[in-house]
Amino acid sequence: MRGALSIVKKEVYSYFLSPVAYVVLGVFLFMMGLIFAKFVALYQQYNMAQQFGQAQGITLDKLATYLYQNMAFILCFVTPFLTMRLFSEEKRQNTLELLLTAPLKESEIVLGKFFSAYVLMLVMILVSAVYVFFMVLWGNPELKIIGATYLGLALASACYVSLGALISAMTSSQAIAAIWTFIALLFLWLLQTLGSGISVSWGPIQWGPTLVYISPLGHFNSFTEGLVHIKDVIYFVSFTLFSLFLTHKVVESNRWR
Amino acid sequence: MIEVKDLTKSYGDRLAVDNISFSVKRGEILGFLGQNGAGKSTTMKILTCFMPATSGNASVAGFDVFENPYEVKKRIGYLPENPPIYLDLLVSEYLDFVANLRKIPRGEKKKKISSVLERCQLGDVRNRLIGNLSKGYRQRVGLAQALIHDPEVLILDEPTVGLDPKQVSEARGLIKSLRSERTVIYSTHILSEVAATCDRIIVIDRGKIVAQESITALGATTKTELVVQRSGEEVVSSLRALSGVKNVHYQSNGKERIIVESDPTDDIMAEIAKVVVNKNAGLVRMAPIQLALEDYYLGLISGKRGVSI
Prior knowledge:
The complex is a heterodimer.
Chain A: H1 2-17, H2 20-51, H3 60-83, H4 85-92, H5 96-101, H6 106-127, H7 130-138, H8 143-169, H9 174-196, E1 201-202, E2 205-206, H10 207-214, H11 216-224, H12 230-256
Antiparallel strand pairs in A: 1-2
Chain B: E1 2-11, E2 14-24, E3 29-33, H1 40-47, E4 55-60, E5 63-64, H2 69-75, E6 76-79, H3 91-101, H4 106-119, H5 135-147, E7 153-157, H6 165-177, E8 183-188, H7 191-197, E9 200-205, E10 208-214, H8 215-218, E11 222-228, H9 232-241, E12 245-253, E13 255-262, H10 266-278, E14 283-289, H11 292-302
Parallel strand pairs in B: 3-8, 3-9, 6-7, 7-8
Antiparallel strand pairs in B: 1-2, 1-4, 4-5, 9-10, 11-13, 11-14, 12-13
Helix pairs in contact in B: 3-4
């Protein structure tokens, strides 16, 4: 595993050598800041309304759900910038030859690459924990729900990053990798809306619910409501493992194609 | 050390390597000679387990490249045609990364890095960004990468491309210094390089091995140019009678020019000189022609042997 670790080390270091990490972190925190400001404004508004006996049942936790669902969506935009270079840059600079002729297993390379982007993703998610701090300071949120939400974010971002890594392994152009990763993530996200409008069935398969199930949105949403269903955990973990498995095959195929 | 048997590689319809077999002994430096696109790089990529062959076998240090790539990769240092360097790292950072990939124990890492920096004369650029280095330095960083783990087998794909003449001779010196402890395969299309460094050459053309010979065997015939003032024909006929002489060409347009192909011994040279002097032919010039390798190579590539000057 030392090979994988040294790849993680080098990649994370490279992120901070180029402007990528700073730009991505900056943009992410800026957008989240906007959403958090909106969230604070809404919270004040409902607090006010509740003093006059209106808007009952809207709690801080409900609003936090809104905050974190937006965050999961913004992570879709951010992921391509972190994953685009993972393999495509190695291919373009012929350095994949270095990795593939070193005494490493392909799985070490894939895991190293995956974790380098994932570590950065987790850093961003952790930075967003300052919002929790403010919530605790000014309100009374249910910390168990927030804990579940962060577990959901960690799992969802793992599946985003694995998909990004897969697409990056298939091209030698960073731009193409970024665009396709973004399209793929957006498409998966929109399957939720798409699927809920379809009532066609083919034999025993209900297309609508199937598409909804494939989308990560619903699975993530149950985390934000404080529900840690084993089926959702399995969804994210298996999605990630399957993408990484395909990435492994694609990297391997560089050798025989 | 390296055994290649009936190796074939095709990219789609195109045969890049066509049924080649050769072997390299421990401590030997093998020159891989051929035009661009002849199949040199492909063969090297197969030996380094970067890509598999379509058919045939190859083994390094007794380990098959298809069945046991891990053991093979451990023993090989490989410099691809384009050095596999990260432009955004410092030279020392890059070598540290490679040392980790090569699983060099932490205790030895520092020592190995500084020794390879010294051997490739990279000491004064160790803290510079690879992206800011010139082509020659980048090539040397690539070479350092291949040497860092003291591999038993070195596979170098055109290691001297992009180096200036001084660096070329330094690189050759470095490769020569590895002789006897390491096995080296070295591809190039520069002939003088092969003559200067290799023990043996393999000439490969359109995916096929067209010749396999040791450098000394290649030097088995030397050519000597003689220019005389008179009685050329007499000289030629008596030269032909000498035992070590293989062939004599004669041209007479104003000057009488004779080219003698003979064994490369000093004795035969003395004999040739003696004949010319005895005939009182008025010797103007007697010079060796050092084109044997080039001649040989061009002859192979163009399909006919023994092209004269």
